[in-house]
Design a protein that fits this description.
This protein has 293 residues and is mostly beta strands. The protein has a domain of 203 residues: Porin, CATH 2.40.160.10. It is 4% helix and 59% strand. It has a 19-stranded mixed beta barrel. β13 and β14 form a beta hairpin.
């Protein structure tokens, strides 16, 4: 099977335990409008908080402006890619951010090269030359069906040293994916399992701890052990509606319901309940999101 990006290791589990559950506490609206010539306009935001408008389009063959966005905080964002540049499988990218506020400006230039068994990604922030960090990541299919291994590192040109590095692997079968990632100088470890139980039901579980191989070999800082766990399940009731539930080690129970009202409108409602304070009006939240388009 084609090799994925290093940053997407364990993505199926992360998405299941995050998507739709994060609506809790927010009353959000998202409107997507697609024009006949392929331009997509998106307006989204949360009541009383930040709103933004963005557009996505392809001005020429191989060139995609994935995002050109402005928000109510006075920030501007852009992301564009050039595919098939010079050789097949090679992609150049530009990701920038600028505007008012305390956030740093950035202009990240990236390169991605992939084959059926290999993926390389590298990027550098050209806007911050005084503290330039070169990030690189690689993922490789090994001679075991379904197994991919990878690693990443960040080199700081200012200090002339490695800022951070991590390693990961992912093993995939017909209906299950198991992944493990160790980051922060191999001082933190995350495990994830995603199981397609049947055509309509998916189960995900994760365990994250601030311990890893780096603590054994002395490359990671020590401290109090902190471990977090979560398990969740989603089920498609029919082609238009989905429900989900998850619970974590902090006694937080998450619930969501998504209903496609028609071809253009989708409603998502979600709630988070602190099971340890079940009878108290404390630690609970609920919200909804409307997606048009």
């Amino acid at each position: 099977m084609p090799v994925g990006k290093f940053k997407d290791t364990g993505k199926a589990t992360k998405d299941l335990l995050k998507d739709n559950f994060d609506v809790t506490g927010d009353n959000s609206l998202k409107v997507v409008n697609k024009t006949a010539n392929g331009v997509t306009f998106t307006t989204e935001g949360t009541v009383g908080k930040k709103w933004s408008s963005s557009m996505k389009f392809s001005p020429a063959e191989g060139v995609t402006v994935k995002k050109f966005k402005a928000d109510t905080n006075g920030r501007f964002f852009g992301e564009a890619t050039l595919d098939g540049a010079f050789v097949d499988g090679l992609q150049f990218s530009l990701n920038f951010e600028d505007g008012s506020g305390t956030a740093k400006s950035k202009a990240v230039v990236g390169l991605n090269y992939s084959t059926s068994d290999f993926h390389l990604a590298a990027d550098v922030d050209a806007a911050n030359v005084e503290s330039t960090v070169l990030n690189a990541a690689v993922n490789v299919n090994v001679p075991v069906d379904g197994l991919t291994i990878g690693g990443s590192a960040s080199f700081n040109t200012g200090t002339q040293g490695i800022d951070n590095y991590s390693a990961a692997f992912e093993y995939t079968t017909a209906d299950m994916t198991f992944s493990a990632t160790s980051g922060d100088g191999l001082g933190s470890t995350s495990f994830g399992v995603h199981h397609a139980y049947d055509a309509n039901t998916n189960i995900g579980a994760s365990v994250c701890t601030n311990r890893g191989l780096g603590n054994l070999i002395g490359t990671a800082a020590s401290g109090d052990v902190d471990t977090k766990m979560a398990i969740g399940v989603t089920n498609a009731l029919d082609k238009d509606s989905t429900i989900g539930a998850k619970i974590d080690c902090c006694n937080n129970l998450g619930l969501f319901y998504t209903q496609r009202m028609n071809n253009n409108l989708t409603l998502t409602t979600a709630a988070k309940i602190d099971v340890s304070k079940w009878t108290q009006n404390d630690g609970h939240s609920a919200g909804f999101k409307l997606t048009y388009g």
